[in-house]
């Protein structure tokens, strides 16, 4: 089903202004030189702390083969511990200079900054700047620009770029993946541990990652391992499920703002439906496992449509159409490659603590400690968030 909002508009909608939201990464301070921060030969041994600094998406990987572009050129050591472990004025000035150097015609006096979180020291700052009509710069080139990556590494920040349109602040639908996004666990791994088939599941996962199996084939193979498992397994699993930090607060704030919410999972309906109800979600979609005739055991088979990447994308289109919303009014949050298609059609698609390759391909990436930080991407300040959470 085609969504009307997905059709390209007849008019040129190239953004005239861009918003960059800068997050200081307080939970990953690097007191050692970044591995790419000084010249070294391929045989040099890097301190483990330096490699650890890359773990959560800075640059955003320590594996050269994961870079879709050329690796960053060597540069100076991180500057945040010299000028302040926060978004300092020196950091902002350097960002302004970086922008004016890379965007011909951009004047520094046209760049405006707004502090979104400054309880003591600034952790989140919003920067708005115009794109000159003659500029060839796009959101995609900004996100993948080597100078921006260098700035992020030097100042220990993460920059998220969006078009500054009326719909940036006025989203109305939030869609989430479940495993490793809303919750900390991967449900299939939890089941595998519970019934003692971790090795078999790991082998299937490896085959899928090597391209030997597609998502649907690997899912069916995993499900086959569940044959004979008591249907009460879901009740056993529920106490083990842990929400990611900030999820409850984020959903509460979104509800206060009038959002519709949805969870789309490549997992299974018993847990996805339960989690959706626990969080007060308006929609929940996942895969249906077949039960034995007496309802006591899982048969290891699936029924109905498989919730793979394209199905997730279609669910987003269908929900938006049902709610009468434009795709520009949709936020999608996920962590896996099968979330990329639905991220790509949303007004804001966020890879939250995702794998390096997913972070490089996603419209936006966020590796902060709390999912509540997504509100900053909507331009909602810390003070405004506190009002929403009362």
From TrEMBL:
<feature type="active site" description="Nucleophile">
    <location>
        <position position="177"/>
    </location>
</feature>
<dbReference type="GO" id="GO:0036424">
    <property type="term" value="F:L-phosphoserine phosphatase activity"/>
</dbReference>
<dbReference type="GO" id="GO:0000287">
    <property type="term" value="F:magnesium ion binding"/>
</dbReference>
<keyword id="KW-0378">Hydrolase</keyword>
<dbReference type="InterPro" id="IPR023214">
    <property type="entry name" value="HAD_sf"/>
</dbReference>
<comment type="pathway">
    <text>Amino-acid biosynthesis; L-serine biosynthesis; L-serine from 3-phospho-D-glycerate: step 3/3.</text>
</comment>
<keyword id="KW-0718">Serine biosynthesis</keyword>
<feature type="active site" description="Proton donor">
    <location>
        <position position="179"/>
    </location>
</feature>
<dbReference type="InterPro" id="IPR004469">
    <property type="entry name" value="PSP"/>
</dbReference>
<comment type="similarity">
    <text>Belongs to the HAD-like hydrolase superfamily. SerB family.</text>
</comment>
<keyword id="KW-0479">Metal-binding</keyword>
<dbReference type="GO" id="GO:0005737">
    <property type="term" value="C:cytoplasm"/>
</dbReference>
<keyword id="KW-0460">Magnesium</keyword>
<dbReference type="InterPro" id="IPR036412">
    <property type="entry name" value="HAD-like_sf"/>
</dbReference>
<protein>
    <recommendedName>
        <fullName>phosphoserine phosphatase</fullName>
        <ecNumber>3.1.3.3</ecNumber>
    </recommendedName>
</protein>
<dbReference type="GO" id="GO:0006564">
    <property type="term" value="P:L-serine biosynthetic process"/>
</dbReference>
<feature type="region of interest" description="Disordered">
    <location>
        <begin position="55"/>
        <end position="75"/>
    </location>
</feature>
<keyword id="KW-0028">Amino-acid biosynthesis</keyword>
<dbReference type="InterPro" id="IPR050582">
    <property type="entry name" value="HAD-like_SerB"/>
</dbReference>
<dbReference type="Pfam" id="PF00702">
    <property type="entry name" value="Hydrolase"/>
</dbReference>
